[in-house]
C-alpha cells in the first residue's frame, strides 16, 4: 500500500487553468440549488429532517442551544454536529428553510472542484473533466439533495479537499482538513482514523498517521460516550439498533448497497487503498437493524461519493489506462446517468403532481397563522413554518395554539378557522 503516496503521475497538468473545475462546481451548485428550492416550493420537504435542522440553526442564530421542538430535545444529543453553527450568521440574515437548502447545494457543489481538479491533474483534461461531471451527477449526492438537508453536507467537501491534499502528498494538510470531520458527525472520527492508518503505512509518515488514527478514534468515543449523553441526558440512542442487523450479511439490500456504492467507478475504485475510507460508514450502517441505513434513498451515501471518485482517480493512475481514456469516459457517463436516473432522487424526476396540487391551499392556511405562535402541524408542512413559529408535529402530545392537519385526521377540539384543499386549520 506504499503505492498510495506515489501519485505524482503525469503531473504536468498541475499548472492547468482551474476554470474547468470551477466552472463545473458553479454549474452543479446552481443546479443543486434550483432542484432543492423547487422541491421545497412544491412542499416536498418535511419536518423530518429539514424542519429539525432549521430549528437547530435558528437556535444557534439567536445565541441559544440547537434545540428542536420537532425532535423534542437538543440536536447535540442526537448527533454531535456543532459545525451547523457556521450557518447561524447566514440564517440570521436570511431566516428561512431555503437558506439551509442553498447552503447544502453550495457545499455539495464545492466538492466538485477538488474532485475535478485532481482528476484533470492526474488523468488529463478530457478524462478528468468527465470524472468531475460524473461525480456531480452521482446518485449519492442526488439522494442527499432529494431528502431535505443534513449535516453530512459539510462532510462532503471536507472529505474531497482532504483527499485532494492527500493525493498531492501534502499529508499534514490532509490531516488538518480531515480533522474537522469530527465536528460534523460523531461517526466520522472513524473515517479520520482510517485516513491515519493509510498515512501510517509509509515509515516516514508513520508517527503522523498513528497520531491521526488515535485522535480520530478518541473523538468518536468521546462524542458517543460523553458529549452526546451530556446533551441528551441518556445514553447514545443509536446503540439500540447496533449489532442486531448482522444476522444476514448477504441480505439483498446490503449487497445492492455495496454494489451501488462501487458502480459509479465501474468498480475500478477497488484497485485503490483509498477505498478503505468507505468502511467505517458502511460498517455502522450494515451492522444496524435499521433497514433505512441499508437503502440508497437517503443522505447516508453522500459522504461516500468523494471517496469512491478519488479512489477511481487513484486507481486509474496506478493502472495506467490512459490509452483507454475515451472508452472509460464513455462508460463512466453511461453508468452515472443510468444510476442517477434510476433512483427516486433523480434530478430529472417529474414533480409529484399531488404535492404540487396541495401547495397553494396549504400556503393560504399557513398565512393565517401569526408569527411566534405555537403550532401542531403535519410533517410535510412543518418546514414551511419553522422560520417564524414554534412548530412541533401533530401527535406529539404537546399543547399548541394552532393546529393544521389533513381532513382525514380526527379534528381536534377548538375554534374552526378555515379549510383549503385537503387541510383544516384549528385555533385551540
Automatic annotation (TrEMBL):
Coiled-coil regions listed: none
Matching Pfam families: DUF2079
Membrane-traversing stretches: 20-37, 123-141, 174-201, 207-228, 255-278, 298-319
Keywords, alphabetical: Membrane, Transmembrane, Transmembrane helix
Entry keyword Iron-sulfur: no
Claim: Transmembrane is one of the keywords in the record: yes
Protein name: Putative membrane protein
Organism: Herbihabitans rhizosphaerae
Higher taxonomy: Bacteria, Bacillati, Actinomycetota, Actinomycetes, Pseudonocardiales
Amino acid at each position: 500500500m506504499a503505492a498510495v503516496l506515489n501519485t505524482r503521475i503525469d503531473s504536468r497538468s498541475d499548472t492547468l487553468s482551474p476554470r474547468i473545475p470551477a466552472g463545473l462546481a458553479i454549474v452543479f451548485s446552481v443546479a443543486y440549488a434550483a432542484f432543492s428550492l423547487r422541491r421545497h416550493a412544491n412542499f416536498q420537504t418535511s419536518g423530518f429532517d429539514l424542519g429539525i435542522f432549521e430549528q437547530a440553526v435558528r437556535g444557534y442564530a439567536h445565541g441559544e442551544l440547537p434545540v428542536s421542538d420537532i425532535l423534542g430535545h437538543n440536536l447535540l444529543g442526537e448527533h454531535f454536529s456543532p459545525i451547523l453553527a457556521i450557518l447561524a450568521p447566514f440564517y440570521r440574515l436570511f431566516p428561512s428553510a431555503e437558506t439551509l437548502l442553498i447552503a447544502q447545494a453550495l457545499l455539495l457543489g464545492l466538492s466538485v472542484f477538488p474532485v475535478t481538479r485532481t482528476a484533470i491533474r492526474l488523468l488529463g483534461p478530457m478524462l478528468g473533466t468527465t470524472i468531475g461531471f460524473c461525480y456531480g451527477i452521482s446518485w449519492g449526492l442526488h439522494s442527499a439533495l432529494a431528502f431535505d438537508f443534513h449535516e453530512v453536507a459539510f462532510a462532503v467537501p471536507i472529505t474531497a479537499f482532504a483527499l485532494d491534499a492527500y493525493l498531492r502528498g501534502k499529508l499534514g494538510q490532509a490531516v488538518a482538513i480531515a480533522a474537522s470531520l469530527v465536528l460534523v458527525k460523531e461517526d466520522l472520527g472513524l473515517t479520520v482514523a482510517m485516513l491515519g492508518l493509510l498515512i501510517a503505512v509509509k515509515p516516514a509518515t508513520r508517527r503522523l498517521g498513528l497520531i491521526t488514527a488515535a485522535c480520530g478514534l478518541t473523538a468518536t468515543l468521546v462524542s458517543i460516550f460523553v458529549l452526546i449523553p451530556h446533551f441528551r441526558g441518556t445514553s447514545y440512542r443509536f446503540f439500540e439498533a447496533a449489532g442486531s442487523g448482522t444476522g444476514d450479511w448477504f441480505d439483498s439490500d446490503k449487497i445492492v448497497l455495496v454494489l451501488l456504492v462501487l458502480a459509479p467507478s465501474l468498480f475500478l475504485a477497488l484497485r485503490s487503498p483509498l477505498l478503505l475510507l468507505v468502511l467505517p460508514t458502511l460498517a455502522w450502517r450494515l451492522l444496524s437493524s435499521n433497514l433505512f441505513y441499508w437503502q440508497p434513498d437517503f443522505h447516508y451515501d453522500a459522504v461516500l461519493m468523494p471517496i469512491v471518485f478519488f479512489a477511481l482517480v487513484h486507481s486509474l493512475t496506478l493502472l495506467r489506462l490512459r490509452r483507454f481514456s475515451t472508452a472509460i469516459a464513455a462508460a463512466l457517463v453511461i453508468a452515472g446517468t443510468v444510476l442517477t436516473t434510476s433512483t427516486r432522487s433523480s434530478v430529472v424526476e417529474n414533480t409529484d403532481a399531488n404535492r404540487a396540487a396541495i401547495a397553494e391551499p396549504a400556503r393560504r392556511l399557513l398565512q393565517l397563522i401569526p408569527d411566534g405562535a405555537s403550532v401542531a402541524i403535519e410533517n410535510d408542512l412543518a418546514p414551511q413554518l419553522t422560520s417564524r413559529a414554534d412548530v412541533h408535529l401533530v401527535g406529539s402530545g404537546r399543547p399548541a395554539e394552532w393546529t393544521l392537519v389533513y381532513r382525514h385526521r380526527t379534528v381536534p377540539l377548538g375554534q374552526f378557522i378555515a379549510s383549503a384543499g385537503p387541510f383544516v386549520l384549528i385555533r385551540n
